Amino acid sequence: MAVFTAVSLDDVSEWIKQFPLGKALAVRGIASGIENSNFFITTESGEHVLTIFENLSFEQLPFYLNLMRHLAERGVLVPAPVANDKGELIVPLHGKPAAIVSKLEGSSQMAPQPAHCAAVGAMLARMHLAARDFPLTQPNLRGLDWWNAVTPTVLPFLSDSNAHLLRAEMHFQESYATCEHYKRLARGPVHADLFRNNVMFVGERLAGFFDFYFAGCDTWLFDVAVTVNDWCIDLDTGVLDEARVRAMLDAYHAVRPFTAHEQASWQPMLRAAALRFWLSRLFDFYQPRAAEMLTPHDPTHFERILRERIATPAPRLF
Ligand SMILES: Nc1ncnc2c1ncn2[C@@H]1O[C@H](COP(=O)(O)OP(=O)(O)O)[C@@H](O)[C@H]1O
Ligand SMILES: N[C@@H](CCOP(=O)(O)O)C(=O)O
């Protein structure tokens, strides 16, 4: 669990007066976050989530909050940010940026079946299409530039075999990023971290996507690859589960058809998505941020997935 910025009902009662939500009745800290301090807030107008951003700045946040508002206004199931009486979505609390969003119902589906994967695939395609006219841009801050910056900081800790894998994959991805197929991939705002724990379900009904704080502009196919690499695998081996992959890809394709350039890029992109999380987990493991009590995620999970995606031909996209 991350260190929390403590917030009392008294703090919130005063602060929330600037929002059209009525009085605050209760505040409850959420223990499961690892990036930010999150609280469920009961107000006279219902349940909301208050987030105090521990790492992101006032400059970076408008992209995420406005993207969520843009998507929510277009019927994509995401938390809707609430503006204060000046129309602001990001308002300081205890000197840190903070925001209030609507609370999604449901819970995470940690053992997804093909029906869940189909619902996620369809909503992901709707999200990509709905964000086409989103006016703000911000790069994926965990993209190729970040991989290049982080690689030398983790290489000294790796075994010879893993160092070789990392160097070879970085070389492959840098070269792939210059090819014609890659340049012609559709792009736009992407979630970039749509793991099982960032989606709410009520039974088989998808209730919403949340945790947009790794979102950025990148290829839509990268988003699909990140999502497939988490939702459609056997967690012990990293091997793709054919039924769940087909359900997710077919549902996505029915809403936003994949292209031939995407088909040609699918295996490199599954590798890129595995590399991205291997690198961030290695970084968090070997270079933990000061003053946080995080239990790092296991990097070997994504090393296994990367090796598997290199070794096994990718299933067809469509
Ligand atoms: N809008 C929301 N609706 C309902 N629950 C939410 C919402 N946002 C966050 N949560 C809850 O808070 C937990 C932590 O949120 P998350 O955004 O994943 O934190 P972090 O970015 O710190 O990892 C989630 O697992 C979920 O239970
Ligand atoms: N999904 C990433 C870590 C990001 O954590 P989140 O709780 O903010 O989704 C991983 O598994 O490495």
UniProtKB/TrEMBL annotation:
InterPro entries: Aminoglycoside_PTrfase, Homoserine_kinase_II, Kinase-like_dom_sf, Pseudomonas-type_ThrB. The keyword Nucleotide-binding applies. Pathway: Amino-acid biosynthesis; L-threonine biosynthesis; L-threonine from L-aspartate: step 4/5. Its EC number is 2.7.1.39. Pfam families: APH. Keywords: Amino-acid biosynthesis, ATP-binding, Kinase, Nucleotide-binding, Threonine biosynthesis, Transferase. One of its GO terms (molecular function) is homoserine kinase activity. Residues 27-258 form the Aminoglycoside phosphotransferase domain. Gene3D superfamilies: 3.90.1200.10, Phosphorylase Kinase, domain 1 (3.30.200.20). It catalyses: L-homoserine + ATP = O-phospho-L-homoserine + ADP + H(+). One of its GO terms (biological process) is threonine biosynthetic process. SUPFAM superfamilies: Protein kinase-like (PK-like) (SSF56112). Belongs to the pseudomonas-type ThrB family. NCBIfam families: PRK05231.1 (NF003558), thrB_alt (TIGR00938). This is Homoserine kinase. The gene is thrB.
